[in-house]
Amino acid sequence: MSKKTCSFCHTPESVDNRLLAGEGIYICENCVISAYKIFFGDDTEESDEHELDMELFTPKELKKVLDEYVIGQEEAKKVFAVSVYNHYKRIFKQHKVSGDDTEIQKSNVLFIGPTGSGKTLMAQTLAKFLDVPIAIADATSLTEAGYVGEDVENILTRLLQVADNDIKKAEQGIVFIDEIDKIARLGENRSITRDVSGEGVQQALLKIIEGSLVNISPKGGRKHPNQEFAQIDTTNIMFICGGAFDGLEDIIKKRLGGNVLGFGQDKRGKEENKDILNLVEPDDLVQYGLIPELIGRLHSIATLKELSKEDMVRILVEPKNSIIKQYQKLFAIDDVILTFEDEALLAIAELAIKRKTGARGLRTIMEEIMVDIMYELPELAGYEVIITKGVITKEAKPIYKKPQKKSA
Length: 408
Hints:
It is built from 17 helices and 14 strands. By secondary structure, it is of the alpha/beta class. The strands form 5 sheets. It has a 5-stranded parallel beta sheet. Helix 9 (248-256) packs across helix 11 and helix 15 (342-355) packs across helix 16. The radius of gyration is 26 Å and the shape is globular.
């Protein structure tokens, strides 16, 4: 005898999931509750809301937190801080305005900026500060249901796992989808075959971004009829999409009537491109390959600039968890003082810019520089290790200095 399953979500009957039987059909408890919410509203929202209330921080307070970890990108930090504030104000404080049926839409965000400019770091920083779960996914690994790859719904599974399987907490979390530009749909003349990794994935993302009840497998993987599901409401989940959008500047220039061809354009183009992304409009993103429905759900657009050499140096030393501070702490544990000369910091920044990896490449460069010194570190107790420009360019060894003992 086959196991009874819900006729709506196909969840099998179990001790924790009882079924109501009709004439040839069955419905589970979760679907009954969902149906009640759809027809009569959720009477439990108001009481649950107070239990799940969180302290709201103003946009200025949120930007101040970002300033401690993210160097530069002032305008992007401001846009993001306002979006996060409005999002959680909508969740926790909307009920305070009585007698008004106006429904505030959630503030999803689109980050546009080069690799290593701080998109992921900004999302992680505020998620940690607000103590909300965050799931980070790469759009290039996602596929439509039924294709080989990772289902879009698996992002929600990841969010639930980060929230320690607390559905209510997950429903107020953040999802960051990187490389969203890599799933721009193909041009009309490129192929007549189905675009598995492009438009289809955008359509699948649209369903969860706009707010819906989604059945997910708590353990991840492909869904099948004989497994139990958890149901997540994505209405209050904040979605952040990010991408480099290489070539978007040319689309904007074309719309503005700018010439992107001809002699002498390369030098001038680099200067113009620094700020031209600030002029991006939804139609430019449609032309790039994002579907209009998806763009319509990403209400706030924050553009990030390419990091300068000076920005790179500041990233090395200024943030609370800067790479230099981390290494200095590692050395201090072994009773060793670590010092970087200013010229050495500039050389590291120049190397990162040359490699075109943004701030993300700074750690890789540091690992390459420090590995030999770290190998000998336990035997250097009581010394000061000084890193010069020559160490970065591999033309010299670090300076090992034994501090002079103070005379009595």
